[in-house]
Write a structure and sequence with these properties.
The structure is a single chain. The protein is built from six helices and eleven strands. The protein is an alpha/beta fold and 217 residues long. α3 packs antiparallel against α4 (150-163).
Length: 217
């Protein structure tokens, strides 16, 4: 399995956060590499959105910037493609993810599993340790740390045209009933800045009281 942290190449804060993610993984024996993020400034951004057949109207929200949410989705999508192309599981991390515990030596799960502690809104806490069906909500409460197998990645790619939404909402049990969760969550987020959320979205973040800076990507 390969592990990647999505990183905005020319953004200093993103690079620093990704370096922190990589260092935290190293402490628990996980080798994480950087993966180039797609941003709205990419010359081929509009073409990528059209090529992926994203349902762009569903990315319009008072909580997030439409183009940045689309770019985030494309970044995740590129790693789903990588999983299919290389025929191997991939751990996908966002730059503000931090490992706070190690993974079990053998992690037996079906197709896709979140490792991330919810980062916003209300959520449910699993009552059992280890792998279970998705408990925190009907969708990922943050797509900051999950592992996807090639078969699941292929299914995610095939449903984009009809069901695409912001990444965490797209990863829901109606689209993908085999989604699972590992508890206690080995990954949390330290989101002191955001390139995606508007002020309304920041207020839902669990770290909002610490202060979250809105920056351009």
């Amino acid at each position: 399995m390969k592990s990647f942290v999505i990183t905005i190449e020319d953004n200093e804060k993103s690079q620093q956060a990704a370096d922190r993610c990589i260092a935290s993984g190293r402490r628990y024996g996980i080798n994480v590499e950087k993966w180039k993020a797609t941003t709205p400034r990419d010359p081929e951004f509009a073409h990528k959105c059209a090529s992926a057949k994203l349902q762009e109207s569903y990315f319009e929200s008072q909580y997030s910037k439409k183009e940045n949410a689309l770019a985030c989705f494309l970044s995740h999508r590129s790693l789903w493609e990588y999983s299919v192309e290389t025929n191997q599981p991939v751990m996908i991390l966002e730059h503000d993810a931090i490992f706070q515990d190690r993974l079990p030596p053998t992690l037996a799960f079906n197709q896709c599993i979140t490792l991330g502690q919810p980062s916003y809104g209300t959520f449910r806490t699993p009552r059992t340790l280890g792998v279970s069906g998705l408990v925190q909500a009907d969708y990922f409460k943050g797509a900051h740390a999950y592992i996807v197998k090639p078969k699941a990645a292929q299914d995610m790619l095939e449903k984009v045209q009809d069901y695409s939404r912001p990444t965490d909402i797209y990863l829901n049990v109606l689209n993908f009933p085999w989604l699972e969760e590992y508890y206690p969550w080995p990954v949390r987020v330290d989101d002191s800045f955001t390139t995606i959320q508007e002020t309304a979205g920041c207020r839902a973040k669990h770290n909002f009281k610490k202060g979250i800076e809105l920056i351009e990507a």
